[in-house]
Amino acid sequence: MTTAAVGARRIDVGKLLPQLIAPVAALVIAAAISSIALLISDKDPLTAFQHMYEFGTQPDQKVEILNKASELYIAAVAVAFGFKMGLFNIGVEGQSKVAAFFAGALASASFMDWMPGGLRIVLIVVVAMIVGAAWASIAALLKTQRGVSEVISTLMLNAIGGLVVTWLLNDHWGVTEPGAQIKTTGILPEDSWMPGLPIVSGTEQKVLGFFAIAVVLGAAYWFVINRTRFGFDLRATGYNPFAAVASGVNAKRMVITAMLISGAVAGLVNLPRMLGESHTYTEGFGGIGFTGIAVALLGRNHPIGMALGAILWGFLASSQIILDLDGIPKEIILIMQGVTVLSVVIAYELAARIGRRAQQRRVGVATAAAAPAAAEVVEESK
Amino acid sequence: MKVLAAAAVAIVALGSMAACGDDKGDTPGTASSGATKKSVKVGLAFDIGGRGDKSFNDSAATGLDRVKSELNLEVKDLAAVAGESENDKYARLKLLCTTGYNPVIAVGFVYDGADAKNGPLARAAKDCPNTKFAIVDGGTTADNVADLVFAEEQGSFLVGAAAALKSKTGTVGFIGGCQVDLIKKFEAGFTAGAKAAKADVKVLTNYLSTPAEACKGFNDPAGGKTAATGMYDQKADIIYAAAGGSGTGVFEAAKAKNALAIGVDSDQYNTVTDASLKTVIMTSMLKRVDNAVFNFVKDFGEDKFKAGPTVFDLKTDGVGYSTSGGQVDDIKDKLDKFKADIVAGTITVPTK
């Protein structure tokens, strides 16, 4: 009886099915609401979606979608490491900016000229991770030592980080390339431009080399969360912090470790473009850290789910250009993105409730059947 | 609960990005058919802000509209969105050139990218070697790219002189939209002009944003209003707003403080939406992006395309000052004297 109950819970179709239907339903709702917005502005939704699809499946656009997805995915993984234990790192934006800036500035400093290109790429990656973790550690320490909510501190540190970078770039280390107006940390020597991956056929454009690192990162994330003691503690703390502490998890250490990992991953967010596209840190970087939160939500912190979310987001963001060419307000994409996130969150919550209710009903039936039997046992013992 | 909070943050972040983007989604009549239209299709890519900023982008839009009506060509304009990558800008230019638009005009230095040799325009120009490109305010060099640049410091010199001559307090102000070399040119010219007209004039300066904030100061009327109010409180009585769409905020502050302001790029006396603000706009520094765009297309049609920089200055009326409203009529002689001196080369206006 008991073993059967456990077995039934392991592959509980009644609980799993709503979880799978939820994202699909959310997408349908998002498409429906966007269609209404399109109809209001006198545009044919079907034509719009068709053009988006045709444009998005062109080889060049596939490359850009994967490029966007790579950076979004990294940001989402950074956020997810915190989410898994109920820690809300909205500082990925600031961490990624500070990290990329210092890594870029160091790598293109004149005293680094001797360094061979490959080594320089490694240096950039390592420095970015260290700086990202260091910036995140401020929020972690504030939380563990002074009880400051990480939501507040990471958000504030975004602003501080952005301004520190601005100040250093504008007044100290920034250079402007001939013909350009934008301040940069200096163009990296050509031997440290990360080569692209020719994985999309039909175009000469290559996917940013960091795509491969994003894939590896996803696998590492899955492994750490599901196959390590640390990952178990992380999830346990997320499910029930009090129970986790009671069973011997060191809460403070968990907060610090999770924040450091989250920050280190955040440090990588701007590197795909920095190593493979602009070849420098420019003032135009930013925004991905916030979008990463949305992608983590879309993918429910699941390594595959977030990958799908990142690709969907990349597709939507790339489609703006073609809508503009068709004279369709490209703000429709922002509506679609916002509605998608909201409906996914709501759909998952509903799915979880339906699943829980089904489970309760089953448990209720089971215990109701068991109760008279138990009463008999009591009677007999008397 | 946290998940919902996270969703809220994500939505807010999206919303703020949307707010930075242009709100004028309507692209005027797609002009798909029209038997009289010639086969030349002119494509134009705006900077962030797009049509409706009443300043820089709108000046380019005016030029494009003239191309459409006077040269009877099919035109198409697309606009950048906040938070997009360099590759998105490249994709926009490439979409225009691969769908048959030639020439293609990129409006704003953002299309140069960080590294003008490998930036969005440089890459698109390489991919579409048979398309002629132009970039307003840019510095990309290629055989099929024309750089349309302006001597903004010369026009700014004249309005600086006008401000100094008209100021009763002896203090004038400069508000720049973004702290980049391009806008510093405006400041340098304005200051030089003010000092030339009245040596002891005091010039206050303020920039609304840096490129790290995606130059949001070009589209931040509230920020412009706050900065201008501060300057008027410091005894300035005329402020030059070299800040694109933020200028509206400066005009509102001027009205509230019963002071004056100077517009930029377009003749803002005529373009400002709120007619009650007209009285505070003493003059505008004209940067004739419209002429540059129109002439570029016209020259293209006459096979007179010229790669490399074309400078639009006082001599060619590429820059200047506006007289709408008549507030500078009494000092027009003095201003025209300065203008003649600059054109003749007796006055050299600094650029930084």
UniProtKB/TrEMBL annotation, chain A:
It holds the Pfam family BPD_transp_2. Its main location: membrane. It is a multi-pass membrane protein. The chain crosses the membrane at residues 20-40, 72-91, 98-115, 121-142, 151-169, 207-225, 255-275, 281-298, 305-322, 334-352. It is found in: Cell membrane. The keyword Nucleus does not apply. Keywords: Cell membrane, Membrane, Transmembrane, Transmembrane helix. InterPro entries: ABC_transp_permease. One of its GO terms (molecular function) is transmembrane transporter activity. It comes from the Bacteria. GO terms for cellular component: plasma membrane. The keyword Cell membrane applies. This is ABC transporter permease.
